[in-house]
Amino acid sequence: GGERLNNGRPNQKLDFEAMFCHHCDDSLAGHRYVLKEEHPYCIKCYENVFANPCNDCTRVIGIDSKDLSYKGKHWHESCFLCNKCRTSLVDKQFGSKADRIYCGPCYDAQFASRCDGCKDVFKAGMKKMEYKTRQWHEKCFTCCTCSNPIGTKSFIPKEHDIYCAGCYEDKFATKCIKCTKVITSGGVTYRNDPWHRECFTCTNCTKTLAGQRFTSREDKPYCADCFGQLFSKRCTACTKPITGKGGLGSTKFVAFETLAWHNECFFCNLCKGSMVGKGFLQEGENIICPECARKNMNAEEDDQQD
Q1: Contact indicator for 42, 68 with CB cutoff of 8 Å
Q2: Pairwise CA distance, residues 47 & 112, whole Å
Q3: pLDDT value at position 246?
Q4: Within its chain, how far is the Cα of 29 from the centroid?
Q5: 91 FRET partner, CA 20 to 30 A, in 111, 190, 200, 231?
Q6: C-beta neighbour count of 300 within 10 angstroms
Q7: Pairing relation of β-strands 67-70 and 39-42?
Q8: Distances (CA, A) of 65 to 12, 32, 55, 79, 88
């Protein structure tokens, strides 16, 4: 700062001593000199002490040359060139990388970030859509299925693809096997198939089975009551289904030919004694213990003798 070039005519404000170079003491009379901080310097001393070396050719940028500077570095006007194509950058936009300067096209080609969609560079002022380490032009940030622009709407990434919410649901979301609509929360899995809780109902009475005991017939689910009514053996004595606790599971029963009884219903028709694990005789659908059968036979013989 404070530099002023003089062409050898003494400045009226300087005394006689000022007409000698402040650095080498050579007389400045009749010579060009430079004032720096009110001290005169001959051209040679000024350039050796204060002039900047050119970042390109390394030679000093003399007082007769224009000094172009950028980030603490200096160039002759003729040396201010693109590092790659050597085009002049004077009065042009340029970029820098690793202490080197480049014209706009060369900088873009080598260093500018590129769109993940079209692979073109992002030019100055272009809007970027960014997600993690990826970036797109606004027009390139589209659903990979329907190609509609996503903009600021919600989206779902899957591997290297981007989906809008609708297309992701259509392609990947879990859908109810019964109504085919997307299961957004909860849900029930039965035989590896997904169901809405409200869709998972008894095949017969449509009562919801989620969280309830149930069983199946031919891959169709049934509540305990309906399964018992429709498919279970029926007790010959009480005619109720022979089912376990809650209508499901195993229960103890006695079977004989095509007939079956609950254990508690399997008793002698005459004396009402339990016949479970005992021999019995059958009279129609009734069962009789051997003792009652003998009594019957004896009674019949007595009647015949009378």
Answers
A1: no
A2: 38
A3: 47
A4: 79
A5: 111
A6: 10
A7: unpaired
A8: 28, 15, 14, 11, 16
| Sequence-distant (≥ 6) Cβ neighbours of residue 195 within 8 angstroms | 176, 177, 178, 183, 187, 188, 189
Chain-centroid distance of CA 59 in Å reads: 57
The type of residue at 181 is K
| Rounded Cα–Cα distance for residues 4 and 2 (Å) | 7
Q: What is the pLDDT of residues 214-247, one digit of tens each?
A: 888 888 898 888 887 787 777 878 878 777 554 4
Q: What are 151-206's pLDDT values in tens digits?
A: 888 888 888 889 998 898 888 888 898 898 888 777 888 888 899 999 999 989 98
Query: Judging by beta carbons within 10 Å of its beta carbon (0-12, 13-18, 19+), is residue 140 exposed, middle or buried?
Result: middle
**Please, what's the b/e burial string for 10-49 (b: 16 or more CB within 10 A of its CB; e: otherwise)?**
eeeeeeeebbbbbbeeeebeebebbbbeeebbbbebbbee
Give the total residue count for the chain. Answer: 306
Which residues lie below 8 Å from residue 274, measured CB to CB, with a gap of 6+?
Answer: 263, 266, 267
Location of structure tokens 């160039």: 75
> Side-chain half-sphere of 89: how many Cα atoms within 13 Å?
26
Residue 86 neighbours by CB under 8 Å, 6+ apart: none
Q: Could you tell me which of 67, 73, 17, 27 has the C-alpha nearest to residue 47?
A: 67
